[in-house]
Amino acid sequence: xxxxxxxxxxxxxxxxxxxxxxxxxxxxxxxxxxxxxxxxxxxxxxxxxxxxxxxxxxxxxxxxxxxxxxxxxxxxxxxxxxxxxxxxxxxxxxxxxxxxxxxxxxxxxxxxxxxx
Length: 116
Prior knowledge:
Layout: H1 6-23, H2 28-35, H3 39-46, H4 54-64, H5 80-92, H6 95-115
Helix pairs in contact: 2-3, 2-4
């Protein structure tokens, strides 16, 4: 993977926060409220302007219902075509099916992580 510099790590953190927040359907305001921090502080972390304290990162992971290390895990690149197809499929699901699908994906991901 190569040597990681601070700028790359901040980029990974920023992208992951945004991705997980959107996956949960949360605005920055709602996520900040769940974390009991200001929206400006969360925005600074999400844009890579601030690292956030260890306590804030733990609150963030808890609010997003993920493990802290997932905030720093680099994501494999996914083509825009794949993302568009997945998003289109998700739009077509009824909300109850979407909840069931998301739960199934989370359960599968949890099982995979446990076996790593």
